[in-house]
Amino acid sequence: MTEFVIGSVLFALPMLLLIPLMGKYLDMRATAVQGARYVAWERTVFYGGTSASVTWPANDKDAGTIQNEVRQRLFSEGTAIAGGDGAAGGWGGSGIKSNWYNRDGSAMLADYDAVGQSLSNDDTPNIASDLLSLIVTVTDAIGSFTLETKGLYTGSVSVGVTTQPINNSLSFDSASAFDPGTLTFSESNVILANGWEAGGADHVKTQTQGLTPTSVFATDPVKTIFDVVKGVLAAASAQELWNLDLGKIEPDVVPPDRLTGP
Fold this sequence. Notes:
Blueprint: H1 2-45, H2 63-73, E1 115-122, H3 127-142, E2 152-162, E3 166-167, E4 177-178, E5 182-192, H4 201-211, H5 222-236
Antiparallel strand pairs: 1-2, 2-5, 3-4
């Protein structure tokens, strides 16, 4: 009986008290993992505008918007995905997850800013990417041609957990309480992606012009001079030169025999 009491007090009882706490910690860490995946994935989709390293007409979403979406969609209780999540300033739904509370009822994520994040897109780590960057640089010097070569997307999420002081004496004296402070879980996720798809017909035309040296004849003032030369030559003898359009690029043109009437 004495051995059982001693074992229960020193081992079994602390374990029973720690199991729920460890479960909460593991749940928060798992949510941080999902948050890091969300951050990295969102950057692969919304990588244009100010998020791109070059001028690229893709969708754009800043870091603050993605951070709020993580807090609303992953760390809040009872929320559905909404268009205004990125502009939120506090926990959504009924607050933080219902089991993320200390034994005295205080929130383990007391502050909305307790969930932080960082994201970046870096150069693709291989020799082919370095060679591609050189080719793009040379091509861009000839015509307007760019590629987003930073395809290594890294998303990180950190969670600052407020823990409750632990009494280390039977007297429950606050002076002898052990305060572990803030416990931080940090998780990262890396995605290697290729965001080279064109942003519409105009972007296709711009990119193609950069790869077509004769496209200089389709831009002013060279086009105006070339039209004058064509007019003179056509008036002299070679009338077929008037129909010559050097460097003309028309993306997504459907041939007339593929069109049907109303």
